[in-house]
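User: I'll paste a sequence; please echo it back and then give the predicted structure.

Assistant: Echoing your sequence first, then the prediction.
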Amino acid sequence: MISLDKTVAPTDAAIIIIKSFWYTALIIAAGSWWYHYRDSQTQKKSTKISTDLSVLPCIRNRRSIFPKSYLKHPLPLDDSIIQSLLNAAIWGPFHGRCYAGNQHPAKFVVLGEESMIEMQKMTLSYYDKNWKEVGWGSGEKGTQEEYDAWRKMTEDEITGRWGPCSHMIAIVMRRQSGPKRLPEWEEAAAVAAATQNIHIQSTKFPQLACYWSSWHAAARDCNEMKEFLKMDAEDKCFGFFIVAQVKPDECQKDRRKRHPSIMTVEWRE
């Protein structure tokens, strides 16, 4: 408050009041600017420190672990773990969600011990009848003697190579899962994304050893396999997701290297 002296003219008093208000406003404005500037700098610094651009551990730790690293006589794997993997598959993208009545195009058939053996024996039975026309394995062709050698090796794998597996999950693409018929590539991509989610979720359980097997090509695509997995005529089997348990000494071995240069990326303005 300004106290007016009788010797001071009213005009001078007005000037003093105006200047006082001006200086006060200037001090307040400067203080406000400094407060907001300091706050913005703090936020920038905080953002710079807290922004982690590294790949998520669950993605980085996803890897294919093959039979040579499987624990030979593992304890039974609880079904809830398998269900956890399948629950992750649901969250993969699929275009059919945009259309009423369309379900996810993926169908997963979980094979336990008995059905895994049944599927492998069916595979051998198919090749016994058709090996001269389709070959065997990945399409190899040869003599009766060569086929017999491959067959014995493959039959031995039922209790050998695949013996430690707790489950094989058949990966099926349903060609039309609802009233809306979508492009086949979209349904195939959705199934692949769902399977990738299963593999990523498996990293939650360090004891698991998993990989996506394309299986023996001709047997995978044959009518006998369609019947075994209860597939419709246009459905396709994309192989099997193998679930086993890893040897303790193999858990920490990961020598993989993935440099960005192996992938083609183009940036455009």
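The CA atoms of residues 2 and 54 lie 63 Å apart. The beta strands are 106-111, 167-173, 208-213, 236-245.
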